[in-house]
Design a protein that fits this description.
InterPro entries: Acyl_CoA_acyltransferase, C-N_Hydrolase, C-N_Hydrolase_sf, GNAT_dom
Keywords: Hydrolase
GO molecular function: hydrolase activity
Pfam families: Acetyltransf_1, CN_hydrolase
Number of strands: 22
Strand content: 15-25%
Protein name: Hydrolase YhcX
Distance between the termini: 37 Å
Length: about 525
């Protein structure tokens, strides 16, 4: 089959370490971001940063252009105390005081191009710092943050009173609000911290994020947990009057998932059949064909949402026309702007007879920033060989968007999803819909109960249920899965079917040779 050319939707967001050739562009972004002469680091400073501590210097590249950056240093914070200045903590901007054996990561700056502040660039950079903090087993992240609205209140409030009012949401300060929303706690006001910062009257807020995975140095070996947060949408399948209505509903669920800092959000199967509600088509195959005309709109919508809300989206599934045939396709839209597709491999009888849907060819495993995943659409989860193949290729989470009209159909999906989690020692996630649309064949009634499942063992929740919704109500189901616990369970669990099956296969192969 030939695939629809959707390459023009891929404008990838890449977070990476700063290189020598990036410095000139990073300096431009820094000056635009601060908008205050004499505050941003100069090229000579960034050059010193990447020479001394390259792992701590990040930039964000979007569509080939640098749109954000941050610099960091490792120190022992007690060596400086709580009354330091930016010059003291940064070694006058050159970070020659970087201590690779220190206990704290100190953030020196975060800069974002003003034209791209809706893409959550700052949040992505903060997340890279957290990863770095965990990687080096550092106790915390600290920094001195600006107070850009303080000058408006300086005649009435002390800096401490101002911060207290902002934290209580009685005054708005964009920087302090952003930092507290990203998990940082206010410690104290730093006086005379940043020269030339007239808006803050040279004050700054000392902020700290404590690394919950920090382990004090010892002779014992340890591994950090690798938590991943997942939102599974129990979608309200209701009448819409336009694509804009559909987009608004989808954005609501993505925004809700982003607010709780989910790494993935999963939508149900055939989600775009909702768009047939305002078409004049009444024959089922015509409705499916009509839905295929929205492919570009669908791609653009979820590609934009993944980047805007910094979340990986498995956007249910959508009917796509290729070479005069229609396929049921699920798309993974990564938060860095790239995407992948998985075709439904087993088509249920109703899809064949009513809609003319054709099967795809193979199951794929996709790399993400939160491990390897696979997507098995609806009926595909009933075939154990597909999940087995995905797990053997490294999949740690299997996502299943489904669409069922009665409880029997839902239970087949649920029980098989839980069986796949046990058989392959993976996490599985299912997402269905509730509601009805009387004018759409195969969508006139929905039965759904979304959930997140694990293997069944002492390391996991009772009965292997991490989270689930009530049946047939609109809901966002949120749960955390731990990939390190999964790895350990595969090696030393009460039952180890994944390892034992592979060993048996190896033994059988050896005997045949």
């Amino acid at each position: 089959m030939s695939e629809v050319d959707t390459s023009h939707f891929q404008k990838e967001i890449i977070v990476r370490n700063i290189r020598e050739e990036d410095i000139e562009e990073v300096v431009k972004v820094a000056n635009l971001s601060f908008g205050i002469p004499g505050v941003a680091f100069e090229a000579k400073h960034y050059r010193s940063h990447i020479n001394i501590f390259p792992e701590g210097q990040f930039c964000v590249e979007y569509d080939g252009k640098i749109i954000g950056a941050c610099s960091s240093i490792i120190i022992n914070f007690e060596d400086y105390g709580e009354d330091h200045t930016i010059d003291q903590i940064s070694g006058n901007g050159y970070i020659q005081n970087h201590n690779p054996h220190g206990k704290n990561l100190y953030g020196l700056d975060v800069v974002v191009h003003p034209d791209y502040r809706t893409l959550k660039i700052g949040r992505r950079l903060y997340e890279e710092r957290r990863k770095l903090c965990r990687k080096f087993n550092l106790k915390s992240i600290l920094f001195g943050g600006r107070m850009p609205n303080y000058y408006k209140y300086a005649d009435k409030l002390t800096p401490e009173e101002y911060v207290d009012q902002v934290i209580k949401k009685k005054i708005y300060d964009p920087v302090i609000v952003f930092q507290t929303m990203n998990g940082f706690k206010f410690k104290k006001v730093l006086k005379n911290y940043l020269p030339h910062d007239e808006a803050s009257l040279e004050n700054a807020t000392l902020m700290e994020w404590v690394n919950e995975d920090y382990v004090p140095p010892s002779h014992k070996d340890y591994r950090h947990s690798l938590p991943v947060r997942i939102s599974s949408i129990q979608y309200d399948f209701k009448e819409v009057q336009s694509f804009a209505d559909f987009a608004q509903q989808c954005e609501y669920y993505v925004r809700s998932s982003s607010k709780v800092r989910s790494d993935f959000v999963l939508f149900p199967e055939a989600i775009t059949m909702q768009l047939a509600a305002f078409s004049k088509e009444r024959f089922p195959s015509g409705q499916a064909q009509k839905v295929t005309t929205y492919t570009e709109d669908y791609m653009q919508l979820f590609s934009d949402l993944a980047v805007k809300y910094s979340i990986n989206i498995i956007a249910g599934s959508h009917y796509v026309e290729e070479d005069d045939e229609i396929y049921n396709v699920s798309y993974l839209f990564r938060r860095n702007g790239t995407f992948e597709r998985q075709y439904k491999l087993h088509v249920v009888p109703a899809e064949k007879s009513w809609l003319g849907i054709q099967p795809g060819e193979d199951v794929k495993v996709f790399d993400t920033d939160c491990g390897k995943i696979a997507i098995l659409i609806g009926y595909d989860i009933l075939f154990p060989e597909l999940a087995r193949k995905a797990a053997e290729q490294g999949a740690q989470i299997i996502f299943t968007p489904f669409a069922e009209e009665n409880e029997q159909g839902y239970l087949r999906i649920r029980y098989c999803s839980q069986a796949r989690a046990i058989e392959n020692q993976v996490y599985t996630v299912i997402s269905g819909a509730s509601g009805n649309m009387t004018t759409i064949t195969l969508a006139d009634a929905k039965y759904g109960q979304s959930g997140i499942f694990s293997p069944v063992d002492f390391s996991f929740p009772n009965a292997g249920i991490i989270a689930e919704s009530h049946p047939n109500v609109e809901a966002v189901v949120v749960g955390d899965v731990d990939l390190e616990i999964l790895r350990r369970n595969r090696e030393t669990g009460s039952a180890t079917p994944f390892k034992d099956r592979n060993q048996q296969q190896e033994a059988e192969s050896a005997s045949m040779n």
